Structure formats: C-alpha cells, structure tokens
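Comment thread on ticket #2218

A.B. wrote:
> Attaching the input chain for the structure job we discussed in standup.
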Amino acid sequence: MIENLSGALSVLSALGYEFEAGGEPFIDLDDRLVLRRILASGASLSAIHREAGEIDL
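C.D. wrote:
> Ran it. Output below, let me know if you need it in another format.
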C-alpha cells in the first residue's frame, strides 16, 4: 500500500500537484515512515493543483 501511495504522489507531484496532510503542507513524499503513519492513522491527504483542482487521496 505504501508503494502505491508513494508512486501516486510522485506522479501527481510531477504533474504540478502540491500536497496537504491533515490541513498542513506535506513535503515528505519519499519518507516511507511518514507515509506509513499517514496510512495507519487514516489522516486526510489531499493533492492540490491550482488549475485542475483538488483530489482527496
């Protein structure tokens, strides 16, 4: 599951998306421990693009 999330974040980042976790900026895209904690806690993770809008992951 972490590999899928990491891959999705990488692709979306390359497309110009920025991320928020729990309403705070999220920049640790490659930190597996942080991604594991996000998944374990069920925290809200959003991908935001100025032109394309927002995706809740």
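A.B. wrote:
> Thanks. Noting for the ticket: The two ends are 12 Å apart (CA to CA).
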